[in-house]
Structure formats: C-alpha cells, structure tokens
Amino acid sequence: MKTIITTKHAPAPIGPYNQAVLTGNTLYTSGQIAINPNSGELVLDSITLETKQVMENLKEVLAAAKMTFENVIKASIFISDMNNFAEINTVYGEYFDNETAPARETVEVANLPKFVNVEISVIAVK
Which SUPFAM superfamilies match (predicted)? Predict the structure, then answer.
C-alpha cells in the first residue's frame, strides 16, 4: 500500500510523478530541483542558493510526511559539474549532523531537468 505525499510548500511535479511516496514507514522522495514553490521560478543565482532551495524543498516534502532530515537514511545527489561539489556539499552538510548523516552518492550527469546544476532525492524512514 502506498500513500502519495504532497505539499504546496514544495514545487509541484513537472511530469507524471508525485513529490513523494510513503510505503509502510519508508518515504521515497522525487528529485528536487531549485524551483521556488511560491513564484515557480528557478533559483540559479549561485550554486549555494540553488542547493539551499533544493534542500528547503526536500525539507518541506519531509515535513508533509511528518519527518525531518533526521529520518533520512539515503541521499542521491546529481550534479552537472563536479567542480561545484564542494559548495553543494557545504550547503548539504548544514542540514545533517555528521554523526548521523545518511548514506549518499554524488554523481555528475550530462544534464538535469530544466538544465539546473543540482538535483537531490532522499529515502527516509520513520
């Protein structure tokens, strides 16, 4: 059995998918990009601000499922340029405690939706 998780505080899907799906105690989020949910505009002013918007979007999706970043057990980060890794990692690290941070992979890809620089998805457990 699955429960669809949605919130108006994160960007609406731009395709045939949902913001997240909860099955049992496990939440699977769709990848988030830096769309400001209030304006619908991309936040591309800097890689730091872009990553912060992505993380804030994930925070809202987690909150809609009554979870926080403490519940995250796995993160997947897709970036268009590995040269941005350090800045992305710094912002990402602000949302986790190093002692209990989730497992993660970071992969450089050729392109991302809307040609953004970073997309992140997570798996969380209650």
Answer: YjgF-like
Domains delineated in the chain = 3-125 (3.30.1330.40)
CA 117 → CA 18, 74, 103, distances in Å? 21, 20, 21
Count CB neighbours of 99 within 10 A.
5
CA-nearest of 23, 20, 17 to 2 is 23
Helix axes 47-64 and 85-93, enclosed angle (nearest 10): 40
Q: Is the pTM of this model over 0.85?
A: yes
Q: What percent of the chain has pLDDT over 90?
A: 98
* Strand partners for 107: 78
User: What does the alpha-carbon distance between residue 28 and residue 124 come to, in Å, rounded to a whole number?
Assistant: 7
Query: Taking Cα atoms as reference points, which of 49, 44, 123, 59 lies closest to residue 95?
Result: 59
Give the pLDDT mean for 14-36: 97
pLDDT-based confidence at 26, cuts 50/70/90? very high
Structure token pair of residue 23: 């099955």
